[in-house]
Structure formats: structure tokens, C-alpha cells
Sequence to fold (385 residues):
Amino acid sequence: MTSSAPTPDDVIDQAVPLAPDHPLYALRRERPKVVASTQGSYEGMFSPAVQGISVTERLLVALHACRLSKADSLAAHYRSRLLADGAEGAADPALVDAVASSNAALPADARLQTILGFTAKLIDRPIEGDRAAIDALLQAGLSTPAVVALGQLIAFLSYQIRVVAGLQAMADAGAAA
Amino acid sequence: MSAPPVPASTPIRSHGFTNEVLGWKAWLETVDLATASPEQIAALEEMSPQAKQSAYFLLLAHQPEMLLQRSIAFNAIMFAPGGMPRAERELGATVESRLNGCVYCASVHAQRFEQLAKRNDVIAQLFEDPLSAGTTPREQAIVKFSADLALKPDALSAEHVRALRQAGLSDMEVLDLVHAVALFAWANRLMLNMGEPIFPAATAAAAA
Fold:
């Protein structure tokens, strides 16, 4: 544990974690637009204003993506958001556990299965993307803007996971000689 | 300005990758500029002057707040002054794109590398064998780090950071490289899964 808590709002600082007295916290602030737009993207990805795919579905996607990527601190963040009593109410803990475990059978809901299957493919094997996968999402009832939101979300998670991994490696390496 | 003339680009075609200009078509209906909302126009203009003519950005404009934030991130990561030279950020982006198999992204950022560095030798190496590319120890270290962050982010360690420092990178440069590689983990997944590249022969045939 560090002596001072990370800025509560910045998810990257929380996940690394970086307290305000950490040298990397200051280094990140030398790229202020990157810090602000990374957090702004996170907030946009989970905004209740986005329609056609619920915030709970988006948080389940994030949890699944982070588990598949072995990004433990980010997975814990999304899990706690799912279990918190947000605007859509807390998610079913059994569903959250099923999605968190990449080995367990995916939930029975066909729409959620399609969404999580698309998530796994984009995270692990992006080259295998094809038109049939997009058509399957449309057939599962997602609108075109909802498919774009889902694609942006999974792609953003790939970015977020790597920013955290990079900063964790830098933190482990300690101060530059 | 007295920049030397840019030598004619040598076309590179290797393992399905190229430094030639490609097109891209969306698999979903794009936003019609004529009926776009002010938020959608603002997000496109934040990205670049050309974004309003791009199928890719017109597709992403279906979610204007997401596109707006992504555009701010993109421009800050790739163009902010100081830190890692821009050509090296483009190299990191091209490594990620090569390894993810994003032919479109790799072609765009191979061209940007060449515009900035006035050479494309490392791009030819990267397309041929991404894991051994690099014309200097510094370039090799950048390519290696980019590949490891692209493929196995969970296995990235202090050793990877020390290798970059050994090759002369400052921590600001390491952070810029992390951002550039991570940004293309984002970009590649959209390009690969929301549409497909159009190759020059097909473009010519479509125009004929």
C-alpha cells in the first residue's frame, strides 16, 4: 500500500496503481491530453447516454476482456462496478462469476453469448474478424450504432490493458538510473 | 524550410503487407455527412481535416463522444512535441499493426514513418520478419518492446523497460512508446473487424 491514495477518478492510476507522489504519476501528467482523453474515453465507453447496449452488458464485456488478457487489477475494477448498485442495479453475482471465468460455460442468454464471443475474438485473434461476425451481432438485435459502440469498447480495452501493463513494468523497473 | 527532397518511395510488398496507399470499406452503414449531428461533425473535425471523407471515421461517428475522445488521444499520442521522435512512434504503431495483421494500418503508418525518417529500410525488415527488425540497437530495442507489449501485455516486466533504457531511451520516451503501441492495439481491432482494406488494383477496377 502507498501512503497517499490515487486520484479516485483516474482508472489508469487506480489500476497500476500510481499515487500522486509516485514519479510515474508526474510523468503521465507531462502528457495531459493523453491522461484526460484516456479517462474521457473510459467514461464515454460506459456512458448511460449510449443506447442499444446496456451499461451492464458493457461492463460484462470489459470483465471478460480483462480476464482473457490476465489484466487482474482492471478485471477487479470492472467486477466491483458490476456488483455495485449502479443506475441499472447490481448484476447477478452468478452471471458475473461465469463471465469472469474464461473456462466456465458462458451464460445461456443468446445475445450475451454473441457479444462475449465477439469480445473474445477481438481480444485474442483480431485478424480473424469478418463480416459474418458483424452480421451475427446485427441478428442478435444490436443496432449499427450499438455494434460500433461494442467494437470501440473492446478496442479501447485492448489499449487500456496495454497502458496499464506498460506503466506497471515501468513502476517495477523503478526510477531511471 | 530547406528540408532535403524526399527520395521516391520504394514500393514494399512482403507477406501480404505493403507501404502503398490503400482504401478501406466499412461492413456497416456509415454516417451520412449531410444529416450528421453537430456532435458528430465536431468529433470528425477533432480527428483530422480528412476524416469527413473517410469511411472509417464516418462509421465511428455513430458514437460521437467515443470518437471525440479517441481523436484527442490519437493526436496527442502521435503528434505531441518532445519525448520520443515521431518517426519512432510510427515505428511502434507499425510493429503492432504488422503483428495484428492489420494491412491497412501498417501501410498508413509505414508511409508516415518514411515521411518523417526519409527511409523505409526498417519497414521492409519489419514486413519480412517483425521479430528481428531494426537497423540500429535502439531501433531493435523499440521493435522488440513493441512486439512484446502487442502480443503478451501480461508478461511485460521491468526487464523490458531496462532494455529500452540500455538502448538510450528516457522514461518519457518509454511512456510515449507504450502509448503508441497501445493506441494501435485499439485502432487495429476496429480496422480489422468493422471493414476491410481495398487494394490498388481493386480501386482502379472500381474506378474504371
